[in-house]
Amino acid sequence: MSWFLLFLAGLFEIAWAVGLKYTEGYTRLWPTVGTVSAMVASVALLGLAMRTLPLGTAYAVWTGIGAVGTVILGIVLFGESAAPMRLACVALIVAGIAGLKLTH
């Protein structure tokens, strides 16, 4: 259950990171409300997952999910670069997440 909560926390991290772009510097009300709500949900779920997962593992996986998801959505939604080296670096993050999961 802790891994599921951690995964959900990572999804909410992606949501708030992407949401920041839509707030336009916190000048748009509803994107700001959604972004702040996603921030709270992300940290709350991370805290619940940390009840049974090691701090370092949980935090690294949480930020890794957020980073990978945000890069992917940046490519899809905002036309950011999908250069091979950039994607290779994302693959390294995914490998690190998998490694942490497998060694826990």
Can you offer a commentary on this structure?
With 104 residues, this protein is mostly helical. Helices cover 84% and strands 0% of the residues. The chain has four helices and no strands. It has helices at 2-23, 29-49, 55-78, 84-103. α1 (2-23) packs across α3 (55-78). The protein is flat, with a radius of gyration of 14 Å.
Overall average pLDDT:
96
Largest sheet: none
Specify the overall morphology.
Answer: flat
Strand content: under 5%
Number of helices: 4
Helix and strand content put the structural class at: mainly alpha
Which value, in Å, is the CA radius of gyration?
A: 14 Å
Record field, number of beta strands: 0
Low-confidence stretches: none
Helix content: over 70%
N-C termini distance: 14 Å
Oligomer: single chain
Encode the helix/strand succession as letters. HHHH
What are the main properties of this structure?
single chain, 104 residues, mainly alpha, 4 helices, flat
